[in-house]
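so the lab meeting is tmrw and i was supposed to have these ready like two days ago... anyway. pasting both below. for each one the top line is the aa sequence and the line under it is the structure tokens. i havent really looked at them closely yet so no promises
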Amino acid sequence: MAAGPLDDAERFARLRLARTERVGPVSFRQLLQRYGSAVRALDALPGLMAKGGKGGDIPSLDRIATEMDAGARVGAALVVLGDAAYPPRLAAVDPPPPVLWTRGNVALLSRESVAIVGARIASAGGQRIARGLADSLGRSGFVVVSGLARGIDAAAHAGALDTGTVAVLGGGVDDVYPPDNAGLYADIVEKGCIVSESPVGHRAQARDFPRRNRIISGLSRGVIVVEAEIRSGSLITASLAAEQGRDVFAVPGSPLDPRSKGPNDLLRQGAILCEGVDDVIRAFETLRSLAEPPPDPFDIPPEDVDLEVLDRVAALLSPTPTPRDELARACGLPIQVVAAALLDLSLSGRATLLPGGLATD
């Protein structure tokens, strides 16, 4: 990636690259690695997309300018991967979101944070616990991150309003959902920070929430689950947190309450018992906390990969995610060449890149 501050043209290009068809977070990062800037990557994209594939849609300059204007109208600030304001803990996620829209105090995104998540239809006791934990964490110097949903999320935000809270949305930063949280949303804009990787004006759909949950855990040093049924988005957030190397905490509850089954099951799987803020602080002091992963050792060559190599790698792909080092062994090619081939195949619609160096057809 390009080093140093990003100029306006590069920031605009990074937003445009992030909104390009078939360019997900994995290929976004690899394109920056290969070409050094989004400006040069966009110049190369038409040829890469057409090579042995079906082509793809690069958004027009006007379309990206419209998104920028929409952000300005609601008072939102754009943060792209590589910006000084991009939260360092989230940048260490594999792969990080390419762009973020924010409203409020962007500096909160880079402070030490703890997420509190849980049931939308939460008990009065669960909401009291969430609010109390958020208040105590804030007084201990932590920002509290959650998803602005009803129940536990709303209670956590309310408890940390005066000390710092971040709400991560599935829709755009102007998508106030649920509507009855409009007052809380306004308070967070004034005192905290709203963040989303979705375009301004986008209304949240079901597919947006796993991405939202990944940012909640990615911003945080640990995730606390207060109440959650076995099949719930809160447990997805906890699973993502574990994958990202975050500490997972669970507040125990009565086995008679279905909302306690999720946290109790997490405890059976090795989550850290959380009965108060002291449990969180003690865990951070005694357990190995998140360390940034080592840089990707597989440089992506800037030169084109010929069609014969593309076909060899494509023939080895299947619906089952396959590590790129396994593909390199199978086709007898250097792993750097295979990584480059996978990037080209993904851009031409012949492969899908997944986190952790995996790929499918």
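ok protien two:
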Amino acid sequence: MKVGIIVGSIREGRRGLGVGKWVLERASERREAEFELIDLKEFDVPLLTSRTLPSVANKQYGSENVRRWSAAIDACDAYIFVTPEYNHGLPGAFKNAVDTLGPEWTGKPVGFVSYGSVEGIRAAEQWRQVVVNFSMVDVRAQVSLSNFTEFADDGTPTPRPQREIDLKALLDQLLDAARRAAR
């Protein structure tokens, strides 16, 4: 089983990559699955302008960047979205990248690690409304980090101890959902 830990921010000075690496470090201690960090910024996914709906494109995309993104996402059995909250919502570049694909997401489990001024909770809740369109199973447990209390001055995550417990619960639920989906 392979779980993609997707860093959904592409901004300069972003905190998401550090959060993604923290999640990967903790998740890699588990033996039930392989975990891979997928950094959205590395794919440079263009704006979705294709006339063909991704859901019916049969994974045949016109952009090489989208084809690479598709292959990375399709190779996973489950996902952890590492998402910031921007302006009380989910980040536009990440939403565009998700919308650019279709069947790669269908029916796969997803969990959320969010961060922001109010711990990114609103972004995670908005993601739950989006992923249901792909028949994805979102797990209840989530990790939410405060920009004000859980990052060092240089942007390095400094999660409080409860976050380790939260992440364990998220991983337990996500891996269980992935096993059920594989049956």
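from a quick look at the 2nd one: The chain has a mean pLDDT of 97. The two ends are 12 Å apart (CA to CA). will dig more after coffe
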